[in-house]
């Protein structure tokens, strides 16, 4: 089912007499549980035309490096193969995505695009909408509940957002049917001879031709793509979900799903994940997991969508900015520079382990990410500088950085979506964390040892 609230016309153009329907894939990099793709198939069938899927790869995406591009290309390679099996052609081009779609739209009857929430993704869609002669239709597929339907404004916290989105869930937690393309044309991409194409079968060659930051290399511990994501989800449900409710906040254990990189690149659908998890009868763990997957994740998207300064210190609530400003001159026991923080060379073994996990695995356990961010705030010359350092490190190393969850996770460490606490030095009324608290909650040294073995 594709709800009307997922569909938005981005311009007022009329359908053209084109050669194909074009799906501009950008955020939802998958062929299963992709509302935008299924909507495009439906429109192509209605027009009795083939469907062409386009993906534009810019080698200047903010903050992205070889680690991110490699993971993404692995997923796109699988997308192309899966589309081919469905009788749908795909063309990937090394070009700024909005420019490439305008060029391909010259021969399209209409264009469908998925939805993104970052400024650059919105800018691309706005440019394309004003430069193509046919309709540009956006279909939202990377949330359970469409962002404006969940809430018409930026929410203060999970407590205000939770009841709003929960009221909508019964209408959106429904399976999505995969449609069959009537006019199959797997050779359609080859027919576009006047456009340069990227060979997704040759990932190493494609990476080599991209002019990208190579300071952070690919990770052997991850394999991009929907198949890997679904396998990880299956193993999580079979072996970890039962105890997720009580063990998810223990970083020394492995009871999280670790699917955030796949969600980041749209390689797996949150709707598919939610429906699969709901099949379990372990109510407490299911509720706890859906709280993270739906309420917390879509609260992050709410923040980034409605607050255009999501990656700036000014995006924090006024109380947090004020209290941190008041305490900006407080004496700090330790002062560490960017190099020391980046390489985990502080006197705190727990921060060092979290930063090492980020560098070596491309993710940090959520609980340790909070501690990591709090320590950067405690050790930096100013809260504004701490905020930018945390964003820089997260965006540089995290496979799930540079997205709503990443920006919100950093902002939370500085008071976003939280409340004022007891006042103390440096932090003011922003929530404080220390090593003693880690030791009380779990075997913190076991976490350090686990990271040392990476």
Automatic annotation (TrEMBL):
InterPro entries documented for this protein: Crypto/Photolyase_FAD-like_sf, Crypto/Photolyase_N_sf, DNA_photolyase_2_CS, DNA_photolyase_N, Photolyase_Class-2, Rossmann-like_a/b/a_fold
The protein's superkingdom reads Bacteria
Q: Name one GO biological process term.
A: photoreactive repair
The GO terms this record gives for MF are:
deoxyribodipyrimidine photo-lyase activity; DNA binding
Show the Pfam families listed in the entry: DNA_photolyase
Cofactors: FAD
The EC number of this protein is 4.1.99.3
Keyword field: DNA damage, DNA repair, DNA-binding, FAD, Flavoprotein, Lyase
Q: What class of enzyme is it?
A: lyase
Annotated Photolyase/cryptochrome alpha/beta domain ranges read: 19-147
Q: Write out the catalysed reaction.
A: cyclobutadipyrimidine (in DNA) = 2 pyrimidine residues (in DNA)
Q: Which family does it belong to?
A: Belongs to the DNA photolyase class-2 family.
What protein does this entry describe?
A: Deoxyribodipyrimidine photo-lyase
């Amino acid at each position: 089912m594709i709800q009307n609230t997922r569909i938005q016309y981005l311009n007022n153009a009329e359908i053209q007499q084109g050669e194909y329907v074009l799906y501009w894939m950008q955020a939802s990099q998958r062929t299963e549980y992709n509302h935008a793709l299924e909507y495009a198939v439906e429109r192509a069938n209605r027009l009795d035309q083939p469907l062409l899927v386009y993906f534009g790869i810019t080698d200047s995406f903010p903050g992205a490096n070889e680690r991110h591009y490699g993971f993404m290309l692995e997923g796109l390679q699988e997308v192309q193969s899966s589309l081919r099996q469905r009788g749908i052609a795909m063309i990937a081009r090394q070009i700024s995505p909005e420019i490439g779609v305008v060029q391909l739209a010259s021969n399209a009857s209409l264009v469908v695009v998925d939805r993104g929430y970052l400024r650059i993704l919105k800018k691309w869609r706005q440019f394309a909408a004003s430069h193509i002669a046919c309709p540009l239709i956006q279909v939202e597929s990377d949330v359970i509940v469409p962002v404006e339907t969940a809430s018409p404004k930026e929410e203060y916290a999970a407590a205000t957002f939770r009841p709003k989105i929960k009221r909508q869930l019964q209408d959106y937690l429904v399976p999505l049917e995969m449609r069959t393309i009537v006019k199959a044309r797997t050779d359609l991409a080859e027919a576009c001879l006047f456009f340069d194409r990227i060979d997704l079968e040759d990932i190493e060659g494609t990476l080599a031709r991209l002019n990208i930051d190579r300071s952070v290399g690919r990770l052997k511990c991850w394999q991009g793509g929907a198949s890997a994501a679904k396998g990880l989800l299956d193993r999580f449900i079979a072996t970890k979900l039962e105890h997720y409710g009580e063990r998810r906040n223990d970083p020394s254990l492995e009871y999280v799903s670790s699917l955030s990189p796949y969600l980041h690149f749209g390689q797996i659908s949150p709707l598919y994940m939610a429906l699969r998890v709901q099949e379990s009868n372990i109510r407490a763990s299911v509720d706890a997991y859906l709280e993270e997957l739906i309420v917390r994740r879509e609260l992050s998207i709410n923040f980034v969508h409605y607050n255009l300064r999501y990656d700036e210190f000014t995006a924090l609530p006024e109380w947090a900015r004020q209290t941190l400003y008041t305490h900006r001159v407080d004496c700090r026991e330790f002062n560490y520079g960017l190099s020391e923080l980046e390489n985990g060379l502080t006197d705190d073994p727990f921060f060092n382990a979290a930063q090492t996990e980020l560098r070596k695995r491309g993710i940090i356990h959520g609980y340790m990410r909070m501690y990591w961010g709090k320590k950067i705030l405690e050790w930096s010359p100013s809260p504004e500088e701490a905020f930018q350092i945390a964003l820089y490190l997260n965006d540089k190393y995290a496979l799930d950085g540079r997205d709503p969850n990443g920006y919100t996770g950093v902002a939370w460490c500085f008071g976003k979506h939280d409340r004022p606490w007891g006042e103390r030095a440096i932090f003011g009324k922003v929530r404080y964390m220390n090593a003693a608290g880690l030791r009380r909650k779990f075997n913190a040294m076991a976490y350090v040892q686990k990271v040392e073995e990476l």
